[in-house]
């Protein structure tokens, strides 16, 4: 993987972990802290988050809390077709083959390391997940992935259906027996890809999705965007921690600080410049749309002294925060009928 390549996923996938951990009597905040994921709720399911922490999270919770089928539990609690950022993209699927073709098409927009393939055979269709693992001992993500793939087929075939045979990327591991959806099949371990065959007679069955057809608007978070935009976006998510630093972004992306600095420099910028850009944008939004005091806003943006915030904002905008808010309030008043 090149230095500038950051594996990413949509924020909608973070919230599905919260409910399963609570169900198991666990603290989501504790585990999110452990793997360097934001602990606060993310309002926009289309926001981008680093992918590797999710792989670490699955393995950590399974081991630490003694839940061997945790990956499968996450998939079963919130299937892919119920995830907020996926729903609108598959709502027009008519039958199973149409749904799987759509999943193959949209998967890279949800996770830039996720790729599926459909291959026809005489007896049906092979549904395969392509690509190597991002981390070692990728047991829980394998359980999550394959369980999710089976659930898509069950939308047409019914909840009692399971593949006769499953190929798994991971080496032989008895932990697969903890997942009832996977353990029913004959497992072949240590394969190049993970997947299974779907009988031909299932492909034209309706999928029965209970999803209203919507006009899915394009979002501002292209998962294949440039390196600088990704780092700026991540700063915007983690600044809620108030002490967002290059070290924090380094930990969450698993890119060494020096490498991060070098890549930003190659792209004509630096971390401090991006941090200030994010703070300035947030400051303007808060002054225009929130009722928070200027002192509260300064603390929310990580300033220890409101005077420092006032000075920084004046440098950015040429006016004080109070004058900026007053001008925007007057402008809104004039625009009102």
Describe it for me?
- This protein is of the alpha+beta class.
- It has 2 domains: 8-202, H-NOX domain (Alpha-Beta Complex), CATH 3.90.1520; 227-335, Arc Repressor Mutant, subunit A (Orthogonal Bundle).
- The chain is 49% helix and 9% strand.
- It is built from 15 helices and 7 strands.
- The protein has helices at residues 12-23, 28-34, 52-64, 70-77, 87-90, 96-110, 139-157, 180-183, 227-238, 246-253, 257-266, 271-289, 294-300, 306-317, 321-335; strands spanning 8-10, 48-50, 115-120, 124-130, 165-167, 186-188, 194-199.
- The strands form 2 sheets. It has a 5-stranded mixed β-sheet with strand order 3-4-7-5-6, covered by helices on one side. The protein has a two-stranded antiparallel ribbon with strand order 1-2.
- Helix 1 (12-23) crosses helix 4, helix 9 crosses helix 12 and helix 13 (294-300) packs across helix 14 (306-317).
- The longest helix has 19 residues, at 139-157.
- The model is unreliable at 213-218 (pLDDT under 50).
